[in-house]
Design a protein that fits this description.
This protein has 314 residues and is α/β, with parallel strands linked by helices. The protein contains eleven helices and seven strands. The strands form two sheets. Strands 1-2-3-7-6 form a five-stranded parallel sheet, sandwiched between helices. Strand 2, helix 6 and strand 3 form a beta-alpha-beta unit. Bound molecules: thiamine diphosphate. Thiamine diphosphate binds next to strand 4.
Length: 314
């Protein structure tokens, strides 16, 4: 959570300094949810399809910081070879599909990846997971995907970060059901609810959902209640978010809550956390400096493959 927050804070500064082409979207306030998912999955076995607010989940899943800075800064050495930018990065052959902007579509993409594993006889113990926002749950893709996931009884976890806004659209203009979990119930998917500002609760509830899916209990959906602590992207000041929401429980900063939980629970001392801050800040600076020195792609010297398998085929 801390590493993601420090990395994203640097990305925001780079954006404001005009050093990043395209948008920067932060996961500020959603790190507890995202990191809990990433840390519950196993890199090399599971599938994780992140969305725009999942830097913490990517980090916890094991994405290298250089993959991030290289993609944002257009280095040819990045996983997308400098051709696809920013959050649109992944390593699909390693279970990390590149982020897809079309909201809700990652549900069916992960479902398809799981079905492919099943057909190859490689699905034992595998979990597929994706994160979406409250707005994404209103798309046709989300509903079609969730229905298929339920019918196929796939080992899938869908995390819904209900951060109260889809861009500037508040939840009362987004859905009329009582709870977003009703959407899971409608398709026969098990549902769980959690306070997304509470790291220990997120780790427990999301970890359990992943275990249930892994052990054959079928698809699981977790709805986390929280507030986006940034604009939609760094181009947006989020001034439409009422101060009453910011001041309430939903507006708590999960990183502050987590820090208190770590020190009060005896997991880490304040000094240790300060040391992590210094160490991670240095790591961020080094990853940015390295990517900044690397070349952009040369259009005359490109193979134009997004990624290659060991057989050389896409
Ligand atoms: C199918 C589709 N419709 C519209 C958009 C444009 N769009 C991008 S982000 C966004 C809001 C997303 O809200 P939500 O799903 O709640 O996620 P959040 O940004 O709050 O994390 C919209 C409408 C899109 N990317 N895809």
């Amino acid at each position: 959570m801390l590493k993601a927050r420090l990395l994203e804070s640097k990305l925001s500064s780079l954006y404001k300094a005009g050093k990043i082409v395209g948008g920067v979207y932060l996961g500020k306030g959603q790190e507890a949810v995202s990191a809990s998912l990433g840390a519950s999955l196993v890199r090399g076995r599971d599938i994780f399809a992140p969305l725009i607010r999942d830097q913490a989940g990517r980090t916890a899943f094991g994405e290298s910081m250089l993959d991030c800075t290289r993609t944002y800064l257009g280095s040819v050495l990045g996983p997308m070879k400098g051709r696809d930018g920013n959050i649109h990065r992944g390593r699909p052959l390693e279970g990390l599909p590149a982020m897809i902007s079309h909201l809700g579509t990652t549900v069916s993409v992960v479902a398809g990846m799981l079905v492919a594993r099943r057909l190859k006889g490689e699905m034992a113990g595998v979990v597929g997971a994706t994160c979406v926002g409250d707005g994404a749950t209103s798309t046709g893709s989300f509903h079609e995907g969730l229905n298929m996931v339920a019918i196929e009884n796939l080992p899938m976890v869908v995390i819904v970060a209900n951060n109260q806004f889809a861009y500037s659209t508040p939840t009362d203009r987004q859905y009329a059901c009582e709870d977003l979990l009703d959407r899971a119930k409608g398709y026969g998917v098990a549902g769980h609810s959690v306070d997304g500002t509470d790291m220990l609760a997120c780790s427990k509830v999301i970890g359990r959902a992943v275990t249930l899916a892994r052990e054959g209990a079928g698809p699981q959906m977790v709805v986390a209640r929280l507030l986006r602590l940034s604009g939609h992207g760094e181009h947006d000041d989020g001034s439409y978010v009422p101060n009453t929401l910011r001041a309430g429980n939903l507006g708590r900063d999960c990183l502050e809550v987590a820090t208190a939980q770590m020190t009060e629970g005896g997991y880490a001392g304040a000094d240790e956390i300060e040391r992590w801050k210094t160490e991670f800040t240095d790591e961020v600076q080094a990853a940015v400096a390295q990517a900044q020195q690397e070349p952009a792609p040369d259009p005359w010297d490109e193979e134009w493959f997004a990624c290659k398998s060991t057989t050389g085929r896409l």
